[in-house]
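Annex B, item 7. Sequence and structure tokens for protein A, then protein B.
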Amino acid sequence: MSSQFKIIGTRQPKIDAFERVTARAKYASDFYLPRMLYCKVLRSPYPHARIVSIDTSKASALPGVALVLTHKEMPEYVWHIGMPLLTDVARFVGDDIAVVAAKDEETATEALDLIKVEYQKLPFVLDPEEALKPNAPKLYPDGNLIGGKPAVVSRGDVEKGFTEADLVYEATYRTNMLQHATREPRVCVAVWEAGKLTLWDSTQYSFDVQRGVAKALNMPMSKVRVVCDFMGGGFGDRSGPERYNVLAALVARKTGRPARIEFDREENFTAGHHRYPVILSLKYGVKKDGTLTALQAKAIADMGAYAHFQGAGGTMEVIMSTYRCPNMKGESYSVTTNKPEGGFMRCVGHPQGTFPQEIHMDIIAEKLGMDPVELRLKNYARLEDGDQFRKIPFSSNGMEECIKRGAETFKWNERWKKPVSSAGPVKSGIGMAIHACRHGAIAPGWPSSGMVRVNSDGTINVFTGTSDIGGGQKGTMAMIAAEELGVPLKNVFVTATDTDVTTDTFGTTGSRQTITGGTGTRLAAADAKNQLLDIAAAELKTDKKNLVISEGTVYARGSEKGVPLDQIAAKAPGPIMGRGVGIAPTNMIFHSFAAHFAEVEVDTRTGAVKVLKLVAVHDLGRAINAMATENQIEGGAIQGMGFALAEEQITDRATGICINPSYLDYKVLTIKDFPEITPVIVESVDPFGPFGARGVGEPPYSVPAPAITNAIYNAIGVRFSEIPLTKGVVLASLKKAKS
């Protein structure tokens, strides 16, 4: 912790930890209201089918059923890319066909079985490369390529760069489809009172849900309230409005009763968002001394049936920003297929780019006879590089320190060895990878606001739209306000994620809350402090420039005698309200930086991989809460290990059905799989972020997979271009290498 701060940089537990561990915290899934209806969704059994007819009469007649809705009763509103609220053309197994509202879940489930649907099965496509072919089944009249053409980025002359290279290496890599595996499933409770809609929703961005639902129902935002007091994990799955929000609202409006939709675990797998798979082809040119001369990439992203955005571009960001190179060309193809929708998941798009790129760089280092660390240090994008297309620098950049401190902590120089150097059937190896991440950033036009109230007793209320999804975001806002105001942290109370009383801080997505919500909160606290000092200056008959607030007391500079803050606040005609709105600069871009170093053991008899040690070094500008920062680094790294070694949602190629929609079959790492993780914090001090901070929630996910994969190669001498690296995959590759 810097000596200039009293609170920033200290280690603080979650401010709502007591409520969370004693079951006093109320999540959206905890809301059960009188006369509430339970909603269940009828889902398509086919990956692609047109509804010829649908008969809901028997379901509607079942005692206890209050309402049945199909596409015929839906408002004319299209969700995301071609996504209707309820569809008459199913585009994946699990697509929403009808919704039943009944007195209890059992009755609603029984009613689903009474709905008779005649489907016309249509040809379907599950592979994005096949979906790009002219004769592929089309999900939409304009074809399967979102936007109709690839997104192309280019700088310099990539062909000239290849002619200048001493070595050109190209390869293709593949990543897999993942589920977020949140503890709390998707859930929303809706109620109408006096013409106003209230939603208790498990969401990472309440104001976006408010906007989306208001638009879908053609009503003013002021008549829609969204509340999310607590959230049981998000990881990107609930980053904005979803059709189940609108369905719950419609049922509640049509019946005049509260309505609840809660996904079961299988629905979360089959009808939720996913980390979309990417096929990434790379061709890099490099001189003998390791200098990159050309980068060429082609990304094909499988976005499933409905896309929130063009996901291939998120993967291409990694290629565009991690390394400095004058010549670069990238083509991004975001493709629809008959699979569940691709969406946001922790470090959106970047793991699918960092895994291939860092293996690619490792292979190049080996071919050049260079130390992998040396190659990264030679080529990482410097402070002045930033956006190498628009020539805009990074706001700050601690990548070099990340690499060097990681190597020192890991003792890389002493331990680095050639592949397959250990004897016996259990072989050890080490590997490393780096990552430059735009997550944790802010951009012009993004909401970044806050409100702070100083009460007459000197206590503080912070009002923020920040959803605390488990990362301690509410505590971060409290610490920022307390530091700026000069008051004890215990005197600060945070109200978050209620659109009626808080302000829009953008979503708790993209690791951005520290910089968006935090900037708004700091500016609001500064505004409140300025008002307090005006009152204090008048009372003490001095210039307010001579006054400071520390530990809840107002002092004249150089004096040890002060006036308690409550005495000053009591002089105000009412509560002091501070307001803050952050405006992002346009002369810099914001990134966070990371380097991971991994040690593994591979049992060549079984294919089992055990990660022994992971050093995770992250530059986040400045750590607001050291404990929360370390927790985020460790948590992200653990998820990234699962991405590398275990997790994959599998779709049956013949039927389009997900065959592992449960925690029994979808392998999430458990505590017995966790290695020794050493988080290391680098503070490059961002010139814009609150007290120099940026976010860190997402970058830790992207780096373990390539570091571990490179370590596996170092152990057994076998390269991998596709994950997850399960026992079966590793063992099969070992046998193939021997044959």
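Protein B:
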Amino acid sequence: MAAPPLAVTGYDVVMAVHIMAVVIAFGWTFALPLVFAVASKRDPRTLPVLHRIEVQVSRWMLNPALVVILAAGIFLASDGHHWSEFFVQWGLAAIIVIGGLVGAVLMPASRRAEAAVSADLAAWSGEGEFQPGAEYLAATRRLTIVGSIASGLVLLTILFMTIKP
């Protein structure tokens, strides 16, 4: 008995690529608060390298994935004639805002956090509990606030893409 033919369209493949790019771009970002909380308690000397990783992953994984998300989204909206629908317009605005936040706020704040905590660690005697300085705390506060906004936008966009209001 012959297997039925696969009914996969180009639209389906691009939709899968679109979803994969979202997972690649943003999945890791949801673990960052836990990663930094554990690192700061277990061994604060790891914080500079974690901020460096944060910048490099943003540069080499998140940013290229944003391009794939946008390109796939343009194809999907065009192929499905969805340009006038709210979820497409929201998605387009969200990717522009998120990309702007990553490039203009999150990556520079991560670089500042790395430099500040490196200086704080260099000045730390190693005795007693490590207390990061005001510059590091300001940079991480900015990362927390803006990162939370970006994460909220990602989740809201997933909701809108799913329910298509």
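Comment on protein B: The chain has a mean pLDDT of 95.
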